[in-house]
Amino acid sequence: MIRVGFIVNPYAGLGGSVGLKGTDGCIKEAFARGAVPHAPEKAIRFLSSLSRNDFYFLTAGGEMGEAELTSLGILHECVYRSDLSESDPLLKTSATDTKHACNEMIRQGVHVIVFAGGDGTARDIFSCTRHNIPILGIPAGVKIYSGVFATTPIAAAQILSEWNLTSLGDGEVMDVNEEEYRNGVLDTHLFGFAKVPSSPVHCQSSKQISFGDESHERQEIARFIVEIMRDDTLYLLGAGTTTQAIADMLGISKTLLGIDAIYQKQVVGSDVNEQDILRLLKIYNKVKIIISPIGAQGFILGRGNQQISSTVLSNAGIDSLIVIATDEKMKRTQNLFIDTGDPDLNSKFGETILVVCGYRIGTRVRLNH
Fold this sequence. Notes:
InterPro entries: AcoX-like (IPR039065), ATP-NAD_kinase_N (IPR017438), NAD/diacylglycerol_kinase_sf (IPR016064), NADK (IPR002504), Put_ATP-NAD_kin (IPR011386). The chain is of the alpha/beta class. The chain is 31% helix and 24% strand.
């Protein structure tokens, strides 16, 4: 029987939809803004999708894994329980709890650690496992730059179900300085390479940053987008340097790592969160959402732009999405992915999606969900 360490960071991704660009040090603020935890439901989706039953789970108490396993009647043993809630009812777990739980699971001889979280959780897990125990991430965070994550919770279940205990690859463990990130500065750090159950189909690549000059391509894309902008339409401009080129051409300021609302070529909402967007959708009848995929990973939705939630997309309509990317970026990005958190909504996007990659130039790319 395969012994699986199973850890859930119940607060992972909490700051995404409310525009905090991460959750480190901001759990209480995220709750105050109306954030709702999604990591536990993603963990349950993973567990529900396992196609084998020869796993024995070692987990941590409460929503760190025990509650999710219990809800599905899956055989498990709780090997660690946090006492943090005794001092602060709102905060039930911490990074220290993750590390203590992980170390106990390693001591009890697990074959693999599976965790639901983001890059911060991956970093905490890796600080315990190093290159000795393989790890596999269920994507639940705001920013997921590391290469130890499956593309979706269901893909994580497929990887574990197909794993033979011997096939292993290396995945980068990366994290972002969230304070700098909230100020619009992307400051990434490589912490090391973890062992990962090998499956090139279902594991994501780590984010890649281009050091080539793609400015001309971005300007051509921007020229086309500005040309087709209509005065009766609200435009939600996503994060990144390609969308920044559109703002530059319009002569307006742009939140580099956030989402801005543009109407009649003027900013009507800066660094908006999910609730801001939903309020704007009640004011403006027509909307277009312009976003660019993460380099190499290929995620259009579900990584770093959780403000564009399944609720937002259901209200705006999937036809509101305009995907832009330079031809050079697409050469480095083998697959495109959408993970709205709602499998039914994901499937409505179909098997391909149009990507604008130049002035009046588009290419249809295969889409995975």
